[in-house]
Amino acid sequence: MATNQLDKQLLEDSTRIIEDNLDNKDFSIEMWCREIAIGRTRLGMKIKGITGLTLNEFVLQIKLRKAAELLCNKELTIAEVAWKSGFSSSGYMGKCFKEHFGVTPGQYRDKQITNL
User: Which pLDDT score, from 0 to 100, does residue 100 have?
Assistant: First the structure.
C-alpha cells in the first residue's frame, strides 16, 4: 500500500482526520485538504496512487470499516451504526455495505455475533 514513510504518514493522518469527523455532517473533502495542508487535486493523485481509490472511495472505505466494527455491538441499532459511521441514512449505508461486503448489515451482524 504505502510506498514510503511520507505516504504512510499521509494515509495515517487522512484516516485519523476522516475518523475524527465521521459524526460531522458538515465534513467535506475540502476540509480534509485544509487540515492536511494539500490541494484537492494533489491529495486525490496521492491517495489514488497509494491506494488505487478516489478520495470519495477512500472515505467510503473508512466509513464501511467503522460500520463493520460497530455492527459487532448488538446494543446499537442499524440506524445508530449508520449515523456513527458517517452515513446520511441507514438505507444508504445498507446499499453501500451490501455492495462492499456482499451481505446486508443485519446479516453481517448476525454472522459476527454467532462467531463470538
Answer: 97
Give CB contacts under 8 A, 24+ apart, made by 60-65: 60/96, 61/100, 62/15, 62/18, 62/19, 62/22, 63/22, 63/87, 63/93, 63/96, 64/96, 64/97, 64/100, 64/101
CA atoms in the 13 A half-sphere facing the CB of 113: 13
Q: What is the CATH number of the domain that holds 28?
A: 1.10.10.60
> Residue 23 sits in which domain range?
5-115
Closest CA to 62 of 9, 13, 112: 13
22-57 pLDDT per residue, tens: 989 899 999 999 999 999 999 999 999 999 999 999
CA–CA separation, 56 and 71 (whole Å): 22
> What's residue 2's pLDDT?
57
Structural domain total, the chain: 1
User: Is 91 within 8 Å of 99 (Cβ atoms)?
Assistant: no
